[in-house]
């Protein structure tokens, strides 16, 4: 073993002391660079939930664990494959095992059972482990050394005060050691702010994590995070009205040229429009937003004349812009910050300048002007650039408001380029980069200001990263250091989640009862590193730009009363029919947004076919079953169903392309998530030359997959046997004279159909765990492979479950065992589809709405009045963080959106695709099935929104470009529907086509439908023209901004991480590099 130097031994001693007595670590880390204000005391970025190992109900209180198992746990949890390594890793590992060696041994009097691990090896070779203690001597640890899992006495319940208290003892059990080491590593190596508290019952310990912006910036570069460029800084002129050829209206000849003939009547309008265009000066407007104006060369050809209505609307539009632009130009020309900036923006600017002014000298290289080196002048330019950014954003808002007011007064007369394309205005997504430090300061600030910022709280504070981006970056940072999934699987962590932000959801602000206790608490004052005197010094440096008086107090009061910011929050925008995809994506991530986009698309596509279904049903009510009009309406409706199903998938692919363009996902490589239970042999990776990459034989995986398909076939055979048995039951009930006759629903069909629905639910609940086990047995390495195999098994089984019974009724019973209603199987099929969808609708309401509401009421009754005590130095009084803690604990009581690493959207997609299969193939026998499905999906929009926000934990944001295998399933169903609907038309309506043989008619219809499907695929193709044009425009903008991949700093992967240690301090080796 390599000997440690004296400095390392001293550091090892200090680390061991921190792990044994973590309160020493807590007292040291508070006094550094960051001013702790209210934004650091919120619900946090991430929450870890641990079991309290000193509680009497602790799961492993009577268990012990061997050293060899702890060593395996440590290696799997903390020796993560990462792109950066800290020099403290080896030292921290040595400190961990030193502390482990000093934990409590199982008492001889108490009966401690050795804990069992799934990965335990039966190997007889157990090598001894040697570690270095703080004195520099080697210590031997035997592999079968055992220590207590819990009950180490770190915490103790005091029945007199009814509180949990620290005993002052050192860490003495394995569970506490893992928790302390995990939090120490996250704080020391990733710069997380960490706060802990206990639940009222004392069974859980919560750790709230918050990450600093500078670390997030470094991680965004390392992971090539794509961020949207604000349209105000890259494409402001795309918001002006254009004609059908996408040319700005101000270039139209009726405005620019001399009028002749009948155009003389427009002379007054022309003069007024020209006057307003001169006031606005679009070229100047573009330069004010750091963009180049249009360059017109030659005459614009083939222009259409503008009507009087359009010119009047355009005149009103320009009047609105001219008034507002004149005001802001005058305001910014005076350069008076107190009239331009709100009180919150002034505070942000002061805080930003203060942080830059008092950074260590070595870190000023990021923002210092290399030529002059005058920090005072740099501050002045910083303010000017800040004002220029705000001016560009105000111009963007003026253009959008003028368009909105014109549409409100004149109707939809004016169209911007985005209106013509049918898309929302959007800047391009480019990979985030931090401007190179060796460049002019003005260029540095301009490049750093192009990104879209988001308001994050009721005070109007803006953040570079929205909630979804923060979550992705924090998860990426944590995964570089810790394997949380493995920790959860071994019960070191009970849960980990991203807390909801109720300001982003419904504009809800934290009331005074949240922050008032914090303001009164003494520890908050002690946490402030900068004194008020120091802050006043910073304000004095920009005295000529910022006055002390705040003229916008009324605006601030109004903001506090309103609670939200202009109603621009998720719940206000998310109505029953309105699905704000961009807002959902910015909060929940692309995968959730894509699901709701698909659900909305499904609803929209059901509308037209539902109208035809209602008309067909009316005809069936007016005419007898054998009437020609009834038969013709069914034939027409069946043809419409085939057309609908054939275009459904093609239209959705176009929607996916628009989604990819909207969020910059065209060429994004999805990260492969490795499954915890994967077992493979270490081999060299061909992709990255990793020598010990775990791999598994693809032949064995395929053999297991085919074996599983045999088991699936057995399940399908059982289903078919049950289906035939139920048909025999239907025939016997029809012959039974004691069964009463019901006009709309025949009991001989209703009773077996009802039985089949419940059997189907039972089989689904039995099969899905089996399918999950079989898929896990296939030993997939990546989550995407696992999900694909799991989806295939479920789709195959559930398709037979839903479509098997109507298919057999339609095509097999008539020639075998017979059907009800005098062997008229189409009539039985009509009754069956009627019954099944009525039952499905009731089941949907019961399981999708009633039961979740009852469960939520029960949970609120059980957990709604919890009281929480602080896990801090003083446990005798209520913590000032009480309301925040209560909110966090309520979040952890919700159900998980992801079950066994299977995302919750998979089940939703499965149900919707099965519904599509049923509608596309057997919608014609019961025309109201489409309006019923429409009602179900409308209800589903509301229920899924309700469950996502209020009943489940916030899901981890995931990137998704498409709905995966479900696209191919819909395409397959559209082809199958051609066969089935052709068969229904040819064999169930023989009297209408008496002159044509049934088989000949079947072939003719099938060829015709296939030809239509082929033509549809050619017309729609796999591309969307609007999305493609926007992509090309975004590429052009990227070149103009000079931020393409080739222009970026290529040393991104070698940036020091983290830039901050605990609360902003730099690591020693980073200081040496910068000096």
TrEMBL record:
Record carries keyword Transmembrane: yes
GO cellular component, one term: membrane
Signal peptide: none
Subcellular location: Membrane
GO MF: chloride channel activity
Protein name (Swiss-Prot/TrEMBL): Anoctamin transmembrane domain-containing protein
Record bears the keyword Transmembrane helix: yes
Membrane-spanning segments: 592-622, 634-653, 705-729, 749-767, 831-854, 916-939, 960-980, 992-1012
Gene source species: Paramecium sonneborni
Topology term for the membrane: Multi-pass membrane protein
Keywords carried by this UniProt record: Membrane, Transmembrane, Transmembrane helix
Domain Anoctamin transmembrane, chain residue ranges per copy: 584-1033
């Amino acid at each position: 073993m390599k000997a440690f130097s004296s400095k390392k031994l001293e550091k090892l001693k200090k680390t061991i002391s921190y792990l044994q007595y973590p309160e020493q670590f807590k007292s040291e880390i508070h006094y550094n660079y960051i001013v702790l204000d209210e934004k650091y005391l919120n619900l946090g970025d991430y929450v870890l939930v641990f079991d309290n190992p000193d509680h009497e109900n602790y799961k492993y209180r009577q268990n012990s664990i061997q050293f060899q198992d702890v060593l395996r746990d440590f290696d799997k949890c903390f020796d993560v494959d990462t792109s950066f390594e800290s020099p403290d890793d080896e030292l921290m590992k040595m400190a961990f095992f030193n502390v482990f060696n000093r934990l409590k041994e199982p008492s001889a009097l108490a009966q401690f059972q050795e804990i069992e691990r799934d990965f335990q090896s039966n190997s007889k070779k157990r090598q001894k482990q040697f570690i270095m203690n703080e004195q520099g001597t080697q210590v031997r640890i035997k592999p079968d050394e055992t220590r207590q899992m819990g009950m180490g006495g770190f915490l103790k319940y005091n029945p007199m005060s009814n509180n949990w208290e620290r005993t002052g003892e050192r860490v003495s059990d394995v569970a506490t050691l893992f928790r302390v080491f995990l939090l120490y590593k996250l704080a020391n190596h990733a710069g997380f702010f960490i706060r802990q508290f206990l639940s009222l019952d004392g069974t859980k310990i919560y750790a709230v994590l918050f990450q600093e912006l500078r670390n997030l910036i470094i991680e965004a570069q390392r992971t090539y995070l794509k961020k949207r460029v604000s349209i105000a800084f890259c494409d402001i002129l795309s918001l002006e009205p254009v004609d059908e050829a996408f040319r700005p209206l101000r270039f139209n000849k009726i405005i620019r040229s001399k009028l002749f003939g009948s155009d003389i009547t427009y002379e007054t309008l022309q003069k007024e429009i020209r006057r307003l265009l001169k006031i606005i000066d679009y070229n100047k407007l573009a330069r004010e937003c750091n963009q180049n104006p249009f360059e017109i060369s030659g005459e614009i050809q083939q222009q259409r004349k503008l009507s009087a209505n359009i010119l009047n609307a355009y005149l009103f539009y320009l009047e609105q812009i001219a008034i507002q632009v004149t005001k802001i130009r005058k305001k910014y020309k005076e350069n008076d910050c107190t009239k331009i900036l709100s009180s919150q923006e002034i505070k942000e600017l002061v805080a930003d300048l203060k942080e830059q002014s008092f950074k260590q000298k070595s870190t000023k290289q990021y923002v210092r002007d290399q030529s002059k080196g005058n920090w005072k002048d740099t501050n002045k330019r910083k303010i000017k650039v800040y004002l220029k950014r705000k001016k560009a954003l105000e111009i963007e808002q003026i253009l959008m408001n003028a368009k909105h007011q014109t549409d409100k007064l004149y109707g939809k007369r004016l169209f911007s380029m985005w209106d013509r394309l049918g898309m929302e205005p959007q800047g391009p997504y480019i990979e985030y980069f931090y401007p190179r430090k060796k460049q002019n300061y003005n260029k540095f600030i301009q490049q750093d200001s192009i990104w879209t910022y988001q308001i994050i709280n009721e005070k109007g504070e803006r953040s570079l990263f929205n909630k979804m981006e923060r979550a992705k970056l924090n998860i990426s940072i944590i995964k570089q250091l810790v394997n949380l999934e493995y920790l959860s699987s071994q019960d070191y962590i009970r849960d980990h989640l991203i807390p909801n932000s109720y300001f982003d959801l419904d504009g809800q602000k934290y009331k005074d009862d949240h922050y008032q206790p914090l303001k009164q608490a003494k520890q908050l004052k002690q946490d402030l590193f900068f004194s008020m005197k120091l802050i006043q010094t910073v304000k004095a440096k920009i005295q000529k730009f910022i006055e002390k008086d705040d003229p916008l107090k009324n605006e601030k009061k109004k903001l506090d009363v309103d609670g939200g910011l202009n109603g621009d929050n998720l719940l206000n925008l998310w109505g029953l029919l309105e699905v704000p995809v961009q807002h959902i994506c910015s909060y929940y991530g692309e995968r959730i947004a894509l699901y709701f986009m698909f659900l909305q698309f499904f609803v929209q596509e059901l509308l037209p076919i539902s109208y035809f279904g209602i008309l067909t049903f009316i005809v069936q009510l007016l005419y007898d079953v054998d009437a020609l009009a009834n038969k013709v309406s069914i034939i027409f409706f069946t043809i419409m169903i085939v057309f609908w199903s054939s275009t459904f998938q093609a239209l959705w692919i176009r929607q996916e392309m628009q989604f990819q363009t909207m969020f910059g996902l065209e060429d994004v490589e999805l990260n492969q998530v490795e499954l915890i239970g994967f077992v493979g042999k270490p081999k060299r990776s061909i992709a990255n030359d990793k020598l010990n990459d775990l791999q598994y034989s693809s032949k064995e995986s395929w053999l297991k997959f085919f074996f599983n398909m045999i088991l699936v076939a057995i399940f399908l055979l059982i289903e078919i046997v049950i289906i035939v048995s139920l048909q025999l039951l239907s025939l016997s009930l029809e012959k039974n004279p004691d069964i009463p006759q019901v006009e709309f629903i025949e009991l001989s069909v209703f009773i077996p159909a009802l039985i089949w629905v419940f059997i189907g639910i039972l089989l689904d609940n039995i099969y899905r765990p089996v399918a999950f086990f079989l898929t896990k047995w296939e030993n997939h390495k990546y989550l995407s492979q696992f999900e694909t195999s799991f989806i295939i098994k479920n789709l195959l089984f559930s398709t037979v479950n839903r479509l098997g019974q109507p298919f057999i009724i339609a095509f097999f019973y008539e020639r075998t065992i017979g059907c009800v209603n005098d062997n008229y199987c189409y009539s039985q099929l009509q009754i069956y589809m009627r019954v099944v969808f009525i039952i499905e609708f009731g089941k949907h309401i019961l399981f999708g709405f009633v039961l979740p509401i009852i469960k939520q009421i029960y949970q609120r009754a059980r957990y709604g009045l919890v009281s929480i005590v602080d896990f801090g130095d003083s446990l005798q009084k209520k913590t000032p963080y009480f309301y925040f803690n209560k909110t966090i604990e309520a979040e952890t009581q919700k159900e998980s959106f992801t079950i066994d690493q299977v995302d919750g959207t998979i089940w939703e997609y499965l149900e919707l695709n099965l519904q599509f299969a049923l509608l596309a193939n057997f919608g014609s026998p019961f025309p109201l099935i489409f309006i019923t499905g429409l009602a179900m999906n409308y209800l589903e929009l509301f229920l899924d929104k309700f469950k996502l926000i209020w009943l489940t934990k916030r899901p981890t944001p995931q990137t998704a470009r498409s709905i995966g295998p479900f696209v191919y399933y819909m395409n397959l169903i559209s082809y199958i529907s051609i066969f089935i609907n052709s068969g229904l038309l040819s064999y169930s309506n023989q009297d209408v086509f008496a002159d044509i043989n049934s088989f000949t008619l079947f072939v003719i219809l099938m060829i015709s439908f296939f030809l239509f499907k082929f033509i549809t695929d050619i017309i729609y193709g796999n591309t969307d023209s609007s999305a493609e044009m926007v992509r090309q425009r975004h590429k052009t903008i990227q070149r103009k901004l000079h931020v393409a991949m080739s222009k970026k700093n290529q040393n991104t992967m070698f940036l020091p991480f983290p830039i901050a240690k605990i609360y902003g301090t730099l690591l020693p080796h980073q200081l040496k590099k910068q000096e």
